[in-house]
Design a protein that fits this description.
two-stranded antiparallel ribbon, alpha/beta, 9 strands, seven-stranded mixed beta sheet, Dihydrofolate Reductase, subunit A, binds NADP nicotinamide-adenine-dinucleotide phosphate
Length: 150
């Protein structure tokens, strides 16, 4: 089991990660940061998200989870010290009990409807702010990094 299990997501101001479950996330501005942070580590995603990717994520073990895969057993097979949960909303929800960090990049959009960060109810998480990284200062886009409190 990795020490760090990190949710990484681009979100709208109203808390959505996509307009619908097959949408390609072409609106996010933090792809370069995502690539830099995840390179060399396993990335875990749901099957819907996998189908929206039009390329492999080179240099990362891509783990596509299905409904029959228990999150704890997926994580327990990993030898890496950190892994990233890269979406979508269903997968973020299923891995929520195991998260140690959230890396969230709010974007200046309001979708009004779509796929929420957590599509399913989860237990409340208590977060402590760690740092923020500029993605696009002119557009006011920053990644916020939080540690999940025990
Ligand atoms: N903004 C961002 O940062 C970001 C990041 C990632 C993804 N996204 C977007 O998120 C969207 C996809 O999110 P999503 O929530 O629809 O899908 P998802 O989490 O990518 O995939 C759905 C997952 O839920 C499982 N599942 C389906 N029904 C279930 C059930 N009844 N019980 C347990 N598990 C079940 C699926 O397994 P099966 O394969 O067995 O059905 C699959 O593993 C896409 O539009 C993508 O572009 C955005």
């Amino acid at each position: 089991m990795p020490t760090d299990v990190i949710l990484i997501a681009a979100v709208t101001v109203d808390g959505f990660i996509a307009r619908h479950s097959r949408e390609v996330t072409a609106w996010s501005k933090d792809l370069h940061l995502f690539k830099k942070q995840t390179i060399g580590f396993p990335v875990i995603m749901g099957s819907n998200t996998y189908e929206t990717l039009n390329h492999q994520l080179d240099g990362r073990d891509m783990i596509v989870v299905r409904r029959d895969d228990a999150p704890e057993s997926v994580l327990s097979k990993l030898a890496a010290e950190r892994c990233f949960i890269i979406g979508g909303g269903k997968t973020y929800s299923r891995f929520a009990p195991f998260l140690t960090h959230l890396y969230i990049t709010p974007h200046p959009f309001v979708f009004g409807a779509g796929v929420r960060l957590f599509t399913d109810p989860i237990t409340e998480l208590s977060l402590r702010f760690e740092t923020m990284i500029a993605v696009d200062e002119i557009a006011g886009i920053y990644q916020y990094q939080y540690k999940v409190q025990e």
